[in-house]
Amino acid sequence: MLPKFTVVYAILLAVLASTTLAAPANTVPRDLAIDNTQGIAKDPVAACKDHKAKDSCKFISEGKLRSGHCNDKLVCSQ
């Protein structure tokens, strides 16, 4: 029979290997990741809200959102 230390070491090594090789569960989904070039969320709804908060222009919604950007018409009063 194997010594207890060897059995415990083998179990710990197996647990470590399974957690290391598995994908991390706390990663941010790719669609919600921050786009570093634009500084806004890639989520289309969040992107629209971000643009509306930063702009003084009015948005006329077309009722559709494309992936990654706002699909509203921008109407400026300037």
TrEMBL record:
<feature type="signal peptide">
    <location>
        <begin position="1"/>
        <end position="22"/>
    </location>
</feature>
<keyword id="KW-0732">Signal</keyword>
<protein>
    <recommendedName>
        <fullName>Antifungal protein</fullName>
    </recommendedName>
</protein>
